[in-house]
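TICKET: design request
STATUS: open
ATTACHED STRUCTURE:
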């Protein structure tokens, strides 16, 4: 809510009841997308570090219960490879602007969180629900992407598409649709 409403400048504004939620603007949505990229990157890099650097015992148990030990690769090695790939996904979250990539991140995170179920951890479904932000963030990024496309401001690389669209022959920038 702080990102949407703003952080406020006084103590009274911090404690005041929010009575009006601002409308989404292209600039705000770009800011939200950037924040979501940072959130997803830190989440993926941190979670990947558990497998790559720490070799967390729970992950090894999850992978064994999911049947990943049948590939003939030792589980600690497999955990390190998966952790490294997850860290790479986190770094790519900062650079990639494709909805298909973020859909893959959603599927990946939902799949990894669902590993609690075959491992039969206590409260497995609660663990999946509790980590809902892990797979909600990519979906929210995709929703913001479609909002920006509807406004004619889809992102290409680091710059909004509207900054890159130049009319042929006129050399002027197209106006933003309202």
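STATUS: resolved
RESOLUTION: sequence designed for all positions
ATTACHED SEQUENCE:
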């Amino acid at each position: 809510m702080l990102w949407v409403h703003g952080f406020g400048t006084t103590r009274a504004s911090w404690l005041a009841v929010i009575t009006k939620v601002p409308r989404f603007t292209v600039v705000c949505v770009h800011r939200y997308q950037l924040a979501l990229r940072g959130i997803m990157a830190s989440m993926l890099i941190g979670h990947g570090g558990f497998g790559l650097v720490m070799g967390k015992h729970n992950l090894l148990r999850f992978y064994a219960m999911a049947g990943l030990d049948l590939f003939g690769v030792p589980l600690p090695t497999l955990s390190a490879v998966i952790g490294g790939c997850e860290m790479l996904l986190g770094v790519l979250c900062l650079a990639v602007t494709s909805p298909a990539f973020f859909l893959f991140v959603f599927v990946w995170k939902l799949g990894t969180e669902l590993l609690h179920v075959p491992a039969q951890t206590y409260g497995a479904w609660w663990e999946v629900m509790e980590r809902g932000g892990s797979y909600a963030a990519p979906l929210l990024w995709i929703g913001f992407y479609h909002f920006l496309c509807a406004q004619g401001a889809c992102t290409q690389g680091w710059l909004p598409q509207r900054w890159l669209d130049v009319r042929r022959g006129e050399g002027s920038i197209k106006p933003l649709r309202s």
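CLOSING REMARK: The two ends are 25 Å apart (CA to CA). The longest strand covers residues 155-156.
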